[in-house]
Specification:
Number of strands: 11
Radius of gyration: 23 Å
Number of helices: 20
């Protein structure tokens, strides 16, 4: 019996050793008018005057539950405009960015839409996902798989996410749907650059994103270094006769790029660097929080690039936008410590976690402030443009200097610190970054998100400026998408 058991185990290990990681397929040519990208999703935007963006941060189940609470609030929040039309705020969302834990809620909503509200709690939020990942890692039948080239704990986790949440869906399913654009982000391990799962990035890799499973994007976005392994992609860059878009080439080749887009152009150059398929045939992706834990870089870069295009007179979606409404859903926690009360310093693991977290938290704060700075700059220049309209009409240089999008930016900060109830803030801050939380914590995170938005001064300012009022705040299953008045 012992020999039989050994033989069976050996056979299982051999079979597992034959496993191979999923491979993203190559593209023979690039078509900028197809695939999962902003240009193709714009046709599904319900409102071109009001661009609503959700940015979901990282933070494991804490982030997934908190961002889900935002979706629940927007679903139930009906507003009535000056002409008496009632709409759901959720139906106005055009773009959702997601990092790490937030990417699960973003991708799942992009896939399931309204069906998400039926079973997301059961399938993911109130499930001990962390225990299931550990169990698969410790299962001897998976040891051979873990030893295979390119396979690792994140690939096992990806298989689990696929089974419990994504049902085998790919980005092709999102591409065929009519929901908002979902931008899940990871980090390129070699360069530390942000890696966004959308077809423009995969154009550079000469690869077809539509064939990539959503579960692998979620696994890459949440592949915490050391705890989980990187997710590996094949890079075929340089094999599909891709031509760098003229507007991109003009910016990245410029010796002095337009100042509003300087940071975005740096990201464009980093992305173009992925095109060296011969020198970098494989890319290894880790947690998106390493490069942007709030998911704001995608938002900031897009606004900066669109502003630069607007500056040089190129048509952009901002030409029609009156309001850009960004909900910054930040579930970063700041649990208290007693380190400074003791002479003995904390242990190595605590130091490592704090050393990694503090820079990320500071970077996240700076991203939010940059958005507020952009909003202030646009508003100031807009006032100057109106004041100097007669002079600018005869002064091309002045007209160019005052050319910014004629849209107001509303940055609505949805973070724990905005709660008035400090006891609740302390409770939420104590929730760990893991893929398991008590049911009570999940429910309190969801409820907190709605309270924070409802009480936000910036949200109230939006309602006032847009001439809107709440019709209800309960669960809504009202008619399809309609535009804000």
């Amino acid at each position: 019996m012992r020999k039989s058991a050994i033989l069976i185990l050996a056979a299982l290990l051999l079979l597992g050793g034959c496993a191979s990681r999923p491979v993203n397929p190559p593209l023979t040519h690039v078509d900028a008018n197809t695939g999962y990208r902003l240009q193709t999703r714009q046709a599904h935007f319900q409102d071109h005057e009001n661009l609503v963006i959700l940015a979901f941060s990282g933070g494991g189940t804490r982030a997934a539950a908190f961002s889900y609470g935002v979706l629940e609030f927007l679903r139930g929040a009906e507003v009535t405009g000056p002409k008496g039309r009632t709409v759901r705020l959720l139906d106005q969302v055009a773009v959702i960015t997601g990092v790490s834990g937030g990417s699960f809620t973003a991708l799942a909503y992009g896939l399931h839409g309204e069906r998400l509200f039926d079973d997301y709690e059961r399938r993911f939020l109130k499930r001990n996902v962390q225990r299931e990942i550990v169990a698969r890692t410790l299962n001897p039948t998976n040891w051979g798989t873990l030893g295979s080239t390119g396979m690792g704990r994140s690939e096992l986790a990806s298989e689990l996410y696929d089974e419990i949440l994504f049902d085998g869906a790919t980005f092709g399913d999102l591409d065929r749907g009519t929901g908002p654009l979902i931008l899940a982000s990871a980090t390129d391990l070699s360069t530390g650059a942000r890696f966004v799962f959308h077809q423009p990035t995969f154009d550079i890799l000469c690869s077809d994103l539509n064939a990539v499973r959503l579960s692998r994007a979620a696994a890459a976005s949440s592949a915490v270094p050391v705890v989980l392994s990187p997710v590996t992609l094949n890079n075929y860059g340089g094999t599909c006769n891709r031509v760098v878009p003229a507007w991109v080439k003009g910016f990245i080749d410029a010796p002095e790029p337009p100042r509003p887009a300087a940071r975005a152009i740096r990201s464009l150059r980093a992305a173009e660097g992925l095109g060296d398929g011969a020198g970098r045939p494989f890319l290894h992706l880790i947690d998106g929080g390493v490069s942007d834990n709030v998911g704001m870089r995608s938002v900031l870069n897009a606004l900066e690039i669109l502003e630069a295009l607007h500056l040089v007179g190129q048509p952009t979606p901002l030409d029609r936008a009156r309001r850009i409404i960004v909900f910054v859903v930040n579930s970063l926690s700041s649990p208290p410590t007693d380190w400074d009360t003791r002479e003995q310093p904390p242990n190595a693991l605590s130091i490592m976690l704090k050393s990694a977290g503090v820079p990320i938290d500071n970077f996240s704060f700076e991203s939010i402030e940059l958005l507020n700075d952009t909003a202030a700059r646009w508003k100031t220049i807009g006032k100057l443009r109106r004041a100097a309209a007669s002079v600018a009409a005869t002064d091309p240089a002045l007209a160019a200097a005052l050319r910014v999008p004629n849209a107001d930016i509303y940055a609505i900060d949805v973070s724990f610190a905005a709660l008035a109830d400090k006891a609740e803030v302390d409770f939420l801050n104590r929730q760990p970054t893991s893929f398991t939380l008590p049911d009570e914590a999940v429910d309190r995170l969801r409820a907190a998100a709605g309270r924070i938005i409802r009480d936000s001064p910036d949200f109230q300012r939006l309602l006032k400026d847009a001439g809107l009022r709440f019709a209800s705040e309960g669960p809504s299953t009202g008619p399809g998408s309609r535009a804000l008045p």
